[in-house]
């Protein structure tokens, strides 16, 4: 009888102790790509605290794109699901981005020499589409942390707040990119 009770106690203790490693959730920020400067062609950010990473089909061929011609810089990250197409866009016009120099760029309203951020949601049925953008009062920052012209690699970080026409705000945080152009 003592052996049965001892066996039951050991069994209960063994089965009640589960491995918590299997149940751990990954923090949203840990889902983002690491900060690198090697041209990995990866980018991501947090949108209202949730990881935003490239996903699904893109009509342009890649869900992460960068363009730089010596003056104009564009970065876009796209998530395409069965429900909608979401895009983060950062644009800087008429700004030279120097090699290996961190340059904070204030993102503000669209203009010829502007620097701004967008968050766009397009639905499959093209109804209730939403566009959020920076303004003179609702801003952010793009920081180029590495730029190698010879290898055509540009890396950096970004964050911004943006509002839609109804005054609803979205927060883009912990943005990072490491791209070849």
Which terms summarize this structure?
mainly beta, 6-stranded antiparallel beta sheet, 5-stranded antiparallel beta sheet, 11 strands, 8% helix, disordered N terminus
Radius of gyration equals: 22 Å
Helix share, percent: under 10%
**Strand line-up across the major sheet:** 2-1-11-10-9-6
DSSP strand tally: 11
Summed over residues and divided by their number, the pLDDT gives a mean of 85
Question: Largest sheet at a glance?
Answer: 6 strands, antiparallel
Number of helices: 1
Q: How far is the first residue's CA from the last residue's CA? A: 75 Å
How many discrete domains?
A: 1
Structural class per helix/strand content? mainly beta
Secondary-structure element order, N to C: HEEEEEEEEEEE
Model regions low in confidence, pLDDT < 50 over at least 5 residues: 1-8
In one word, what is the shape? globular
Report strand %: 35-45%
